[in-house]
Amino acid sequence: MILSFVMVKAETTIVLSKDTIVGKLFTYIDNDTTPILYDWMNKYDSRFFTQKGMVCTQPKGYIKDNNTDDYSNKYPRLRRLLGMTEFLWVSNDGNALFYWNNYPIYREDDLDKIISKRKESLVDKQHCYQTKEMFRSYYGNKVITSYRDSLIYYSQKDAKQIFNADTAYRFLIKLRSEDFYKRKYKSVEVIFLQKKDCGWVNLICFYTDKGKKKINKYRKQIEKVLKYKE
Questions:
Q1: H or E segment at 108?
Q2: Would you list the domain boundaries of the chain?
Q3: For residue 117, how far is the Cα from the chain centroid?
Q4: What is the mean pLDDT of residues 214-225?
Q5: Which of 5, 34, 69, 178 is most buried, judged by most C-beta within 10 A?
Q6: How confident is the model at residue 52, as a pLDDT?
Q7: Pseudo-torsion of CA 67, 183, 153, 227, nearest 10°?
Q8: pLDDT at 223 over 80
């Protein structure tokens, strides 16, 4: 099951879904008093980044697109696979776009209420579980034993220098033709970041065929958006 959640007024509803099957719901009242440091994103993302000790910088060369109805309504498989978003960052040339999935720091007591398997409720292993489920949900159970071969890890030095993360890795997802976003974004690269006791976040990056040829250029721009504090 891929972990996702939906904000509804003062409550947060965490939705566990397995493809089209909706799993458990876990709701709590939002009484968080964490200050809102980023007024250009929703208050929950701002709070989660602050709680994780992360600095978030608006990307240069990208335009914020608040119209995500098309993505949310016309691409249900992508939404289930890659999560929901309230806005997209689109490159000035239109050949790349990205957004993030940003979750609270779930402690073991919280996760035990949501996930029944104890080994999957370890706080600092959630990024691993989410990665595995992304591959399984899109490619099927046949990839469970081999999906790790697709992960490209940043060296410890680069993970520290770029993100100040303990772990950072990325992988490409080859989309089916029916899942091409707006018929032109055919490739997706996912970047996972994790730091002990500070939770995880991932960046979902779409590319056109032309954009994929310059993926290193766009990736360097996107890598500057999020970083854990010392």
A1: helix 108-114
A2: 53-228
A3: 22
A4: 97
A5: 5
A6: 94
A7: -20
A8: yes
Q: What angle do CA 193, 108, 7 make, to 5 degrees?
A: 70
Rounded to whole angstroms, how far apart are CA atoms 210 and 133?
29
With tokens 């335009």, the residue in question is 63
Q: What is the pLDDT of residue 220?
A: 97
d(CA 134, CA 114): 18
The more confident residue out of 70 and 28 is 70
Whole-prediction pTM value?
Answer: 0.82
CA dist., res. 141 & res. 106, Å (int): 26
Which phi-psi region, left, alpha or beta, contains residue 134 (left: φ > 0; alpha: ψ -120 to 50)?
Answer: alpha
CA 77 to each of CA 13, 14, 85: distance values in angstroms, whole numbers, following the listed order: 20, 18, 14
159 against 125, higher pLDDT: 159
pLDDT for residue 70: 79
Element of type H or E holding 195: none
β-sheet bridge partners, residue 181: 185
- The CA distance from 182 to 222, in Å, is 21
- Closest listed residue to residue 172, CA positions, set 207, 129, 217: 207
Task: Yes or no: say if 143 and 208 are a contact pair by the CB < 8 Å rule.
Answer: no
Residue 83 burial (CB count, 10 A): 20
